[in-house]
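ZP: hey, is the guanosine-5'-diphosphate complex queued? I don't see it on the tracker
AM: it wasn't, my bad. submitting now with these inputs:
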Amino acid sequence: MEQTLSIIKPDAVAKNVVGKILDRFESNGLRVAAMKKIQLSKADAEAFYAVHKERPFFGELVEFMISGPVVVSVLEGENAVAKNRELMGATDPKEAAPGTIRADFAQSIDANAVHGSDSLENAKIEIAFFFSRREIL
Ligand code: GDP
């Protein structure tokens, strides 16, 4: 059993497809162990994406992530990290495989519907960023 962090980004929340995206997870063997809808502050987004701070798109990424509320969840299941990445599809929705979340719900490389931890190690750090132990059930 693994746990991973998922964020349904502001574009997908604004499009009202939260339930459709959660259904992709639940229909593919992942379980929601924790969930909340929140508005990230600029400091939150900068801290969460600190690994990208030298990238040219960092400012745009932060502005996008604070442009509206997000739905953050802990997904649990066998190979949850890789399974979530597979369900998400490639970062650029134009390159995402048909049937993936990004192919079906995302518009562009920045407004790309979802975030998912890219390793078990990062999943632990990202889960702790948003949730206390007693919020994960
Ligand atoms: P992910 O793990 O598939 O989300 O991709 P990365 O870790 O490489 O990038 C993190 C996030 O930064 C992506 O999900 C995009 O929202 C954003 N991003 C990545 N590349 C670009 C880019 O070239 N331009 C912009 N504006 N955003 C980008």
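AM: back. Residues 57, 60-61, 91, 109-110, 112, 115, 118 surround guanosine-5'-diphosphate (CB under 6 Å).
ZP: great, adding it to the tracker
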